[in-house]
Specification:
The protein is globular, with a radius of gyration of 23 Å. The relative contact order is 0.12. By secondary structure, it is α+β, with helices and mostly antiparallel strands. The protein is built from 15 helices and 19 strands. A hairpin with a 4-residue loop joins strand 18 and strand 19. It has 4 domains: 86 residues, 2-Layer Sandwich (Uridine Diphospho-n-acetylenolpyruvylglucosamine Reductase, domain 2), CATH 3.30.43.10; 119 residues, Uridine Diphospho-n-acetylenolpyruvylglucosamine Reductase, domain 3, CATH 3.30.465.10; 117 residues, Alpha-Beta Plaits; 113 residues, 2-Layer Sandwich (Alpha-Beta Plaits). Helix 1 packs antiparallel against helix 2, helix 7 packs antiparallel against helix 9 and helix 8 crosses helix 11. Strands 12, 13, 14, 15, 16, 17, 18 and 19 form an 8-stranded antiparallel sheet that branches. It has a 5-stranded antiparallel sheet with strand order 5-6-10-8-9. A 4-stranded mixed sheet has the order 1-2-4-3. Its cofactor is FAD. This is FAD/FMN-containing dehydrogenase. One of its GO terms (biological process) is respiratory electron transport chain. It comes from Pollutimonas bauzanensis.
């Protein structure tokens, strides 16, 4: 019996896709990589997923775990050999339970992030992981990449939001680790090992996640700034004034928002003409646990002095939930605007907050001198030091001409990040696209230790080969 026949016997013909039916699952979101697969299989539950993994292990067939396929580094795309089995998690989409006394929610890996947020809200709780792709990304993918998003400043990455996991091992066993414990000091923390491993150590099938009280009031402001150094000063002021109530602090270059309003003319900036023209914008959000009045007082206590100190050129405070959503929509559609604008070179970097302004100023200058006409599109999560340092090609540059620049530009940017003690991947992972970069910037000992872990847990090397550690 062939492996495909065995998979059909396990999951049913409707959930084993081959040929043209499999094609939608074989290209990454950015359309940079298209692979081939023996089959795409959609298990209904963890037990069936474990059976599928056992069949693949017996056949020595590579396995590519796949969630919503919204990643930036082709981590859920098979290679071109056609030997791999893609395990897509879309049918594992149940909310298994909510415990409001323990403030936890247990969900399957195929749950869309937005559905988890809504389930928590219906129970009177907050699940704070928030991403631009939250309407289509899966929780399993969020955990596999240790996703960050816009509220890391207050709540942490996906790893900090996770208490327990259910995982299918490369041998097809199920680790039942769905414990809702905040204290469990009984040996190695397997949970943290699997989170961020991009499906190279096992297949996450469910998770127990932390919930939080819903804020009693929110305040959102969009601020126009003269420079990124002003944003850093404003962040320090906001941290001092708001403490843990500061849940979001995003920065966007003026070029980013000009692009958004150009591609999506229905979106508007809430400012009139300013001289000098703002070079940057900051999106700041406060979540208050007391009252609307308390939130307003705290907001004014920070924003008024910031304007007096010229840390901000102007400020627009959202007067309604709709206006707050409109401010966030400006931020969240930058990626879509970049996709519409043409080929884009992307970097997902992190540095100490104190170094970001100098890094951007100096690296911008080097790139503009070396590549005249390059359009720099920089935005990100200033509060945790993570910037999406992206660029569009010079006007008139063809796709092939711009692609020829990519390797040199990425090496320049990543070399400068590494020299500053930063990371070349803050929240998007390594996938296929950054494997060579990982080899270049990780120390030999780090790579060796990671390789030992991979060999110990996946001795056949069948879990997501070619990703992270190729």
């Amino acid at each position: 019996m062939s492996l495909v026949d065995a998979l059909i016997g396990c999951a049913g013909a409707a959930n084993v896709l081959t040929g043209a039916d499999a094609q939608p699952y074989l290209t990454d979101w950015r359309r940079h990589a298209t692979g081939r697969a023996l089959a795409v299989v959609r298990p209904r539950d963890a037990a069936q997923a474990a059976q599928i993994v056992r069949l693949c292990a017996q056949a020595r067939a590579p396995i590519v775990p796949q969630g919503g396929n919204t990643g930036q580094v082709a981590g859920a795309t098979p290679d071109g050999t056609g030997l791999a089995v893609v395990i897509n998690m879309q049918r594992l989409n149940r909310i298994r339970g909510i415990d409001t006394q323990n403030d936890t929610i247990t969900v399957e890996a195929g749950c869309v992030l937005e559905a988890v947020q809504q389930a928590a809200m219906q129970a009177g709780r907050l699940f704070p992981l928030s991403l631009g792709a939250q309407g289509s990304c899966f929780i399993g993918g969020n955990l596999a990449t240790n996703a960050g998003g816009t509220q890391v400043l207050r709540y942490g990455n996906a790893r900090e939001l996770t208490l327990g996991l259910e995982v299918v091992t490369p041998q097809g066993e199920i680790w039942h680790g769905l414990r809702g414990l905040r204290k469990d000091n009984t040996g190695y923390d397997l949970r943290d090992l699997y989170i961020g491993s991009e499906g190279t150590l096992g297949l996450i099938t469910a998770a127990t996640l932390k919930l939080f009280p819903l804020p009693r009031a929110r305040r959102t402001a969009l601020l126009a700034l003269a420079g990124l150094d002003a944003a850093t000063a404003l962040l320090n002021r906001a941290r001092g004034g708001f403490g843990a109530a500061l849940t979001g602090f995003e920065v966007m270059s003026a070029d980013c928002l000009d692009l958004v309003t150009g591609v999506f003319p229905e979106q508007r900036l809430p400012f009139g003409p300013m001289h000098p023209r703002p070079a940057w914008y900051a999106l700041l959000e406060l979540s208050d646990s007391e009252s609307e009045a308390h939130a307003q007082d705290r907001f004014e206590s920070v924003l008024a002095p910031a304007l007096e100190a010229s840390e901000a050129l102007d400020v627009a405070v959202a007067s309604s939930e709709a206006q707050s959503a409109a401010f966030w929509h400006l931020r969240e559609t930058i990626t879509l605007a970049l996709a519409a604008a043409g080929p884009c070179i992307k970097h997902d970097i992190s540095l100490p907050v104190s170094q970001l302004a100098d890094f951007v100023h100096e690296t911008d200058a080097i790139l503009r001198q070396s590549y005249p006409g390059l359009r720099l599109m920089v935005f990100g999560h200033l509060g945790d030091g993570n910037l999406h340092y992206n660029m569009l090609g010079p006007g008139g540059a063809g796709k092939e001409q711009f692609a020829a620049m990519e390797s040199a530009i990425q090496a320049l940017v990543h070399d400068r990040v590494h020299a500053s003690g930063g990371s070349i991947s803050a929240e998007q992972g390594i996938g296929q696209r950054r494997v060579d970069d990982l080899r270049r910037y990780k120390s030999p000992l780090e790579l060796e230790l990671m390789g030992r872990i991979k060999q110990a847990l996946d001795p056949l090397g069948i879990m997501n080969p070619g990703k992270v550690l190729a």
